[in-house]
Here is the input.
Amino acid sequence: MSGSGATDGSALVVIDMINTYDHEDAELLAPSAERVVPVLAELIGRARQTDVPVIYANDNFGLWRSHHGELVESALSRPHAGLVEPIRPDDASLFVVKARHSIFHDTPMSYLLWQLSVGTVVLTGQVTEQCVLYSALDAHIRHLDVTVPRDAVASIHPHLAAAALEMMERNMGARIVLAKDVDFRGTRWPVPGGTPHQPGGRL
Here is the structure.
């Protein structure tokens, strides 16, 4: 049941992978993303096959009139479309537009996860040492379990990414694994809806 209070399900969160790669540091990020995309595509496919929700949390890149369809179309029209096409959202995907680093900052992510009865977030995408790190911290302080597949997150600076993964593991209790070892605990997930109530500890 949606919003039942049970939090034993999982969600796969794809952070900032709908990307035009025309921003600062993109030339450092793109090679890492190239290595991540095939792994992430397989992980997304496995989540879809097991009815685990796939949630895209993506910057709007300052385009305040854009919706997620426009973001996808813009990314697919750029030279790095090959990094987006294999992992593009399907009709069942959920999409949260964010403006800052964390997927939770001024977004409905907490409420959405509660509606879906999610207790574990599998964080993927980019950038490991920035948005993934800050999202992991915000998930931790909301009493969510965090899993980060280290081969499904892309970085700009590998040494900072390694430090970020260690911080997530040591300070936030995150499980740092390989994508092939991700165990989606969710079963069939509920359609968003239900009583507009936000339990304590998830705000």
Confidence is low (pLDDT under 50) at residues 186-203.
